[in-house]
Amino acid sequence: MTTAPSHPGTRADLWRELAQQLRVDSVRATAAAGSGHPTSAMFAAELMAVLLQKYLRYDFRRPDNPNNDHLIFSKGHASPLLYALYAAAGAISDEELFTLRRLGSRLEGHPSPALPWVDVATGSLGFGLPVGVGIALAAKTVDPRPYRVWVLLGDSEMAEGSVWEAFEHAAYWQLDNLTVVLDVNRLGQSGETMHSWDVGSYAERARSFGWRTLSIDGHDVDAIDEAYAAAIETGGRPSLIVARTRKGKGVAAVEDQPGWHGKVLRDPEGAIAELGGRRHIRIKAAPPSAGPPARTYRTSSPVLPAYELGTEKATRRAYGEALAALGSAREDVVAMDGEVSNSTFSGLFADAHSERFFEMFVAEQQMIAAAVGFDVRGLTPFASAFAAFFSRAYDFIRMAAISRASIRIVGSHAGVATGEDGPSQMALEDIAMLRAVHGSTVLYPSDANQTAKLVALAADNPGITYLRTTRADTPVIYPAEARFGIGGSRLVHASLHDQVTIATAGITVHAAIKAALRLAEDGIS
Amino acid sequence: MTTAPSHPGTRADLWRELAQQLRVDSVRATAAAGSGHPTSAMFAAELMAVLLQKYLRYDFRRPDNPNNDHLIFSKGHASPLLYALYAAAGAISDEELFTLRRLGSRLEGHPSPALPWVDVATGSLGFGLPVGVGIALAAKTVDPRPYRVWVLLGDSEMAEGSVWEAFEHAAYWQLDNLTVVLDVNRLGQSGETMHSWDVGSYAERARSFGWRTLSIDGHDVDAIDEAYAAAIETGGRPSLIVARTRKGKGVAAVEDQPGWHGKVLRDPEGAIAELGGRRHIRIKAAPPSAGPPARTYRTSSPVLPAYELGTEKATRRAYGEALAALGSAREDVVAMDGEVSNSTFSGLFADAHSERFFEMFVAEQQMIAAAVGFDVRGLTPFASAFAAFFSRAYDFIRMAAISRASIRIVGSHAGVATGEDGPSQMALEDIAMLRAVHGSTVLYPSDANQTAKLVALAADNPGITYLRTTRADTPVIYPAEARFGIGGSRLVHASLHDQVTIATAGITVHAAIKAALRLAEDGIS
Q: Is the complex ipTM higher than 0.90?
């Protein structure tokens, strides 16, 4: 809220000067890097200057303060602007600003949680906003907090379906703690966007989805100030500020010119001079609003369900029963489902802990993003659906891994065992898909007791944990007291003179047991 | 247009009777199968009865007639209704109707092109409509046709982001040959949808996206008739008919009751009696509108670009140059891009054949669906973007394979070679992801000449063909006259006394060549 003492003039002057500083620092950093998106960083300089100076409530020295606002650049390629903002906030040094895009630097080409103020990695368009919805949702439900979530969204990004899942959910959950700034600079990477500068087309769409909308000139600091003030006063629904901007604003050689996306300027020194040279404004952001201290969730050892040897139980049902038990033992566990909770059996958790269960409807991308948002807020999310339909959210799972998120994905009805429902309902690609994700764990239990144990272990497993369950009832083959860890394998059957080895997992273990018995009949052990 | 002579009464009576027949046949088929979604089939019986009897222009004996309308059940789990419709049209026998969900039957749990009247497999919600957009787009551009595309969409499905990509594109391309029937029965699988029976919420959203909307009682045959008539007269934009319906309509035990999704009725005989028993109405659909005969596209052997040994050329650029050349030789080749055509170099095709290039903006799912739609219409589509971002469309690629579509996907900037842009821009999962798709081909060329040859081969390769290109310029290592096939491998370097074998692909071939030279310096061949 305070400014460097050297700075004179009105607050509007300060905002304009700060905006120029953000532009200059974006040019300086990208010129040093030799690559990056300086023009994408310039459009929103005034929008971010006013936000940082007046509205963002954030303790940059304590990024783990649970009441801090959240600022997400869904438009991740505007990272130089974000880094210039951090520099203006005193969070990173001018020296570090110059490490942009260098190997080992925290200032990656697109933002990532290598920086403590970044909640999630962005750079795949349409991912940041849905995560913002998840973070806002946590504060409205399981962990009430006064923070506000600010998301910078690009106009190109509005073509991504995932953005509309987020618009739908933000309104559905009445997230009035969410403010989205939409930069309408009309230019994508290779040409004009679908709607160019038709600001009204975006506002109409958002309004029809139940949002409050405010359309402004994105370079007019007073209009920006008024829009933010109106947004934070809006109750019961999220706000969208549709800001008409000019890409490359302030540098005549590139302003509103196509062909400059993701390219450094030809004459950075000239651009810096044109922008009025370097400035040295420091902004101390307002402290977070008063809110409860960081929560310590009550956790105890879960009393997991136990299944009798020889009985039959589907692993998907064991999942639901174990998750409900885990929820009783651990307050930090939340669950969500893609409108099939009666098939995945996450409905058993919903029955037991309705206040921690989230129906995400048929929006798998928003479901994964909400899980990431809950993880950002220190919760332990489990997200379930038919395994086949997680392929709809593959990019989000990939981005969750890059975001260093710990989430648990539970897919039911895996494999051809889904049978007569047909191939569209069968997950056949899920193991390959999940194993290819950086730092992932794929769990494929073969019986109900093993499933229950793995559910409990998954809660503490870092990264992306995928648990694959099957539809059919299958025999319980391990005693309830058996111990299981993540990784390794188990010997189901062996004899002294084995001739054949069968290695298998999940539901096919039962087919393999039958095969072994049949082979034994033929004298083959 | 004609009816079985036995049937008396007004046309409205006929529609009502036909609707009851569709319901009864849905119940009969699912009862015989012992599984399926009879309640989901009942809501839209009147909507489909009026469509079949009066509006659908389709020669069921000649599904390959290029001027036939297209009917897509985006809500694939309503398949019993679709099959009952085919039976009423005389396309399938009552006997075949009873094979529903049996192994080897063409009547799969969810529709697939095993049936010649089905364009694409559905069953993963939010996929059918975007493909319908592609089919409608083909008729408005590269292959002008009088046909209309009819899509049955479910209200649960509206939560999928991909649906909004389709709404956006249908309006953008002014597809007035597209009519979507949205069934608002308010009940999803596990509970109420987000908007229940708030028909207006859907209509408002669609209007804001530029659609004509008509809200009706989905069981009122006269209202349905009027809505279809209005829809086909609407010019310049697509139409959405928002139909309020009751799930399980006509059978008191299940009508508008939750908990009946995907379950057979307890008393099918009672339900059939309640619905008035079996009927034997046969409808001969109206013939397709007069239009041009099936096209034979001019194709000749392409004059591919040739690159000199030892020069450097990025495989992504070779892709663009080869595709432009292929487009000159083959009229059936169309290309599309996810708003990065200046990076993937599909822009070179756009420059040469602008009338066959489609900018799909940042909507990877709609892009893949449009490619499938073009394939349905006998074209040869190539779709390009950064390889990393095809993970956003993975479910669509999976569904394209189940749809038996032949499409070519070209991902640039593959692997860690993308470097300073950061992990969000690097495709690291793409090979695993694409290889796991049924019947797919993954091509990863290591130089420009090989790339050019593979582009030409990909045009005739069935199924999902994925070509992976890299950003950096790399040496041309194969002569332009070298012959390449799909599959197999090539020996780059060998000597009589080799001690080490290096197997590699794509850009790492060049690293491997350097490694081999370094090893040779150490006396290791």
A: yes
